[in-house]
Design goal:
Layout: E1 5-7, E2 16-20, E3 29-36, E4 40-48, E5 60-66, E6 70-75, H1 84-87
Length: about 100
């Protein structure tokens, strides 16, 4: 079973998430790297970093690909990926 593409969730209507160049808020913004609610992304790998704004203890970040346009990191708290216990078996850890 593969997780493949997943949608961004938990993003308020009219709001968006900024993709980062690394797994945390201190990393630079990805130019034009906006993730809107329900936008589908491809999951590349996962890492740990800063906590989510809505859950500071949740420190998992996914490297995602948006179409063929750009890629970057977003906190997994805002993605519809399920439990880390499941996706850690299917998605590799980022180098």
């Amino acid at each position: 079973m593969s997780l493949g593409r997943r949608a961004g969730t938990g993003i308020d209507a009219g709001s968006w998430l900024q993709l980062r160049t690394g797994p945390g808020h201190r990393y630079a913004d990805v130019p034009y790297g906006r993730l809107d609610n329900r936008a589908e992304v491809g999951l590349k790998c996962w890492s740990t970093g800063d906590g989510a704004a809505d859950n500071p203890n949740y420190r998992y970040w996914m490297r995602v690909e948006v179409g063929n346009s750009y890629s970057g990191y977003v906190n997994d708290w805002y993605l519809n990926t399920g439990s880390p216990d499941v996706w850690k078996q299917q998605i590799r850890q980022c180098p």
